[in-house]
User: Which sequence fits this backbone?
């Protein structure tokens, strides 16, 4: 997943307003107690950040590939 795809998935899953809040204000313990935005800024893989964000927000696995994106390969 590219960073641009991450932001598209965030907007489509959470909406523009809440997407901004959830990516900047939610602390993700799985990413070293960083927000999603901070994790991306330090170079953590976008797919890893997306998965951690989805897990923290109880997004079902069936939607974790992000709307408009190809389903992840197993």
Assistant:
């Amino acid at each position: 997943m590219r960073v641009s795809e991450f932001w598209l998935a965030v907007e489509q899953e959470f909406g523009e307003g809440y997407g901004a809040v959830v990516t900047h204000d939610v602390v993700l313990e799985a990413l070293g107690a960083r927000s999603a935005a901070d994790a991306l800024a330090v170079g953590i893989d976008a797919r890893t950040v997306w998965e951690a964000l989805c897990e923290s927000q109880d997004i079902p696995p069936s939607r974790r590939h992000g709307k408009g994106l190809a389903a992840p390969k197993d």
Remarks:
- The chain has one domain: 3-61.
